[in-house]
């Protein structure tokens, strides 16, 4: 599995560059922002709301989250990332949507998994690998 980590990380960043996320700035009302976020969390099976991009994270927690997903072997074709620093409505809305105060935030199959601390804990105890395998979102070795 270690041999695929660099290629998965590279592919995650390539997919992100090709990913044309819709803008949340077009939403004027809070309920429209929430509807846009609800759509975004279901755009791909694995969705990360982060500060920066996978190829250029703007905080250590976002960087660690991308690295964890890479180590887990997440299939780049099943991954989307949204940069909350590009859109204030998204940045505030995602916190309200999840009722979670921090970013990054990971969603798998539309369900909130957690932030970086939870991802790290799940990575260490093996529960993240189990979840991602059950959801069939990892690259087959």
From TrEMBL:
<feature type="domain" description="Glutaredoxin">
    <location>
        <begin position="46"/>
        <end position="113"/>
    </location>
</feature>
<dbReference type="GO" id="GO:0015036">
    <property type="term" value="F:disulfide oxidoreductase activity"/>
</dbReference>
<dbReference type="InterPro" id="IPR004480">
    <property type="entry name" value="Monothiol_GRX-rel"/>
</dbReference>
<keyword id="KW-0479">Metal-binding</keyword>
<dbReference type="GO" id="GO:0044571">
    <property type="term" value="P:[2Fe-2S] cluster assembly"/>
</dbReference>
<keyword id="KW-0676">Redox-active center</keyword>
<dbReference type="GO" id="GO:0051537">
    <property type="term" value="F:2 iron, 2 sulfur cluster binding"/>
</dbReference>
<keyword id="KW-0408">Iron</keyword>
<dbReference type="InterPro" id="IPR002109">
    <property type="entry name" value="Glutaredoxin"/>
</dbReference>
<keyword id="KW-0001">2Fe-2S</keyword>
<dbReference type="GO" id="GO:0005759">
    <property type="term" value="C:mitochondrial matrix"/>
</dbReference>
<protein>
    <recommendedName>
        <fullName>Monothiol glutaredoxin-5, mitochondrial</fullName>
    </recommendedName>
</protein>
<dbReference type="Pfam" id="PF00462">
    <property type="entry name" value="Glutaredoxin"/>
</dbReference>
<dbReference type="InterPro" id="IPR033658">
    <property type="entry name" value="GRX_PICOT-like"/>
</dbReference>
<dbReference type="GO" id="GO:0046872">
    <property type="term" value="F:metal ion binding"/>
</dbReference>
<keyword id="KW-0411">Iron-sulfur</keyword>
<dbReference type="InterPro" id="IPR036249">
    <property type="entry name" value="Thioredoxin-like_sf"/>
</dbReference>
């Amino acid at each position: 599995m270690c041999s695929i980590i660099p290629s998965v990380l590279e592919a995650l960043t390539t997919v992100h560059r090709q990913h044309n996320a819709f803008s949340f700035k077009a939403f004027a009302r809070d309920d429209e922002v929430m509807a846009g976020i609800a759509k975004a969390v279901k755009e791909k099976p694995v969705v990360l709301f982060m500060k920066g991009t996978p190829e250029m994270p703007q905080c250590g927690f976002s960087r660690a989250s991308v690295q964890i997903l890479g180590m887990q072997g997440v299939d780049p074709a099943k991954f989307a990332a949204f940069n909350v620093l590009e859109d204030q409505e998204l940045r505030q809305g995602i916190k309200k949507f999840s009722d979670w105060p921090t970013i990054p935030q990971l969603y798998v199959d539309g369900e909130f998994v957690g932030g970086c601390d939870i991802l790290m804990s799940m990575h260490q105890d093996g529960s993240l690998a189990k979840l991602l395998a059950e959801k069939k979102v990892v690259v087959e070795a």
